[in-house]
Design a protein that fits this description.
Number of strands: 6
CATH superfamily: Vaccinia Virus protein VP39
CATH class: Alpha Beta
CATH architecture: 3-Layer(aba) Sandwich
Helix content: 40-55%
Distance between the termini: 42 Å
Order of helices and strands: HEHEHEHEHHEHHE
Radius of gyration: 17 Å
Strand content: 15-25%
CATH topology: Rossmann fold
Length: 219
């Protein structure tokens, strides 16, 4: 029940974010859209939606939910198509070729559009606390691990500038719960809450939260 409440709250927050970035509705591309929850919330808010999802089962579920076709890759999008918002919610770390993907995002974005990237931060307090047991390392599914400096350098290289970044406070608790289970074989809820609170507290000063949402514009 708590998970569903948090999920609904964060979905609404994501929609509010893209509405603010675009000064209203437009066309959004969600890369790695999964079963389509974010796109459904965006669609309900009036956005024209497009999704990319390589997993066939998730893609099929998203198509049934959204009643629109979902692409299997960025390469399968129509030539010359542009989007006001491109989002990747905990997806970039799964991409083998970062340079290729970020260059594609630049080509797909309108001149005044925004790219929204959410990724874990391996310089966070909870990452340092759990060390090799930190769940967001998620090897081998995560090919890459980011800090604010490294992700900004990557996007700068491909013609983007950082417009803003935002903490994702709920991730500190969720990642800590998974990490405690990886460490001992059983979720330590009390420790997870304590670590999550401390991680968020430290991040309020340092900016190094467990996960961060980055907002990029074209340079």
């Amino acid at each position: 029940m708590v998970y569903r409440l948090v999920r609904n709250y964060t979905l609404q927050g994501k929609v509010n974010l893209i509405n603010k970035l675009n000064s209203g509705v437009g066309e959004v591309l969600d890369v790695g859209c999964g079963t389509g929850s974010f796109l459904l919330a965006s669609q309900d808010a009036g956005w024209k939606i497009c999704g990319v999802e390589p997993d066939v089962d998730a893609r099929t579920a998203a198509e049934a939910k959204l009643k629109v076709p979902i692409k299997h890759s960025l390469e399968s999008l129509e030539a010359g198509r542009k989007f006001d918002i491109i989002s990747m919610w905990h997806v970039l770390e799964h991409m083998p070729d970062l340079n290729q993907v970020v260059a594609q995002l630049h080509a797909l974005l309108t001149d005044k559009g925004s790219v929204v990237i959410a990724v874990p931060n391996c310089a966070s307090y909870d990452a340092d606390y759990y060390k090799s047991y930190w769940a967001a390392y998620d090897v081998p599914r995560h090919f890459h691990h980011f800090t604010p400096d490294t992700i900004v350098a990557l996007f700068n290289k491909h013609g983007f500038v950082l417009a803003n970044q935002k903490q994702m406070p709920f991730d500190a608790f969720y990642i800590s719960m998974l990490s405690s289970k990886y460490q001992t074989g059983k979720t330590d809820y009390m420790e997870s809450v304590q670590v999550g609170l401390k991680s968020n507290s430290k991040a309020s000063q340092s900016g190094q939260s467990s996960s961060i949402t980055y907002l990029f514009k074209k340079a």
